[in-house]
């Protein structure tokens, strides 16, 4: 996994979109709506906080593996996992699609 800021990601939780996340009542629904993350794969959710002026103060990284190819997929949102909005999910996913 690429370490975007060299501060080190810390794993905060794992789960499946089909089961939801206890820390955020709507996040799994929004991820299903706007991303191609499969509903029943394990998603690792890691957080990073950064005090440097050049990076966001908090980021959340979503990591999942394709069941067929075992390829690692990831995308990030520049917000703490509990504070992610529907618009954050949509805009971050759109940005990821445009970069790939």
Low-confidence stretches: none
Largest sheet: 4 strands, antiparallel
Strand content: 25-35%
**What order do the SSEs take from the amino end to the carboxyl end, as H and E?**
EHEEEH
What coarse outline follows from CA principal-axis ratios?
A: globular
Number of helices: 2
Percent range of helical residues: 10-25%
How do the strands line up in the largest sheet? 1-2-3-4
Please tell me the overall pLDDT: 86
Count of β-strands? 4
Radius of gyration: 13 Å
Distance between the termini: 16 Å
- The oligomerization state is single chain
- Structural class by SSE content: alpha+beta
What is this structure, in a nutshell?
The chain is an alpha+beta fold and 100 residues long.
Q: What this model shows, in words?
A:
With 100 residues, the protein is of the alpha+beta class. It is built from two helices and four strands. It has helices spanning 27-34, 86-99; strands spanning 10-15, 43-49, 58-65, 72-77. It has a four-stranded antiparallel sheet with strand order 1-2-3-4. Strand 2 and strand 3 (58-65) form a beta hairpin. Helix 1 runs parallel beside helix 2. The longest helix is centred in the C-terminal third of the chain and has 14 residues, at 86-99. The mean pLDDT is 86.
Could you name the key traits of this structure?
globular; 100 residues; 22% helix; four-stranded antiparallel sheet
Please outline the helices and strands.
Blueprint (H helix, E strand, L loop, with lengths): L9 E6 L11 H8 L8 E7 L8 E8 L6 E6 L8 H14 L1
Antiparallel strand pairs: 1-2, 2-3, 3-4
Helix pairs in contact: 1-2
């Amino acid at each position: 996994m690429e370490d975007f800021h060299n501060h080190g990601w810390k794993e905060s939780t794992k789960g499946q979109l089909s089961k939801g996340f206890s820390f955020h009542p709507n996040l799994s629904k929004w991820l299903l709506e706007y991303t191609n993350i499969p509903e029943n794969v394990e998603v690792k959710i890691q957080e990073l906080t950064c005090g440097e002026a050049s990076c966001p103060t908090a980021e959340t990284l979503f990591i999942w593996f394709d069941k067929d190819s075992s390829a690692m997929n990831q995308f990030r949102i520049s917000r703490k996992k509990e504070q992610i909005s529907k618009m954050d999910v949509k805009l971050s996913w759109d940005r990821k699609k445009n970069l790939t």
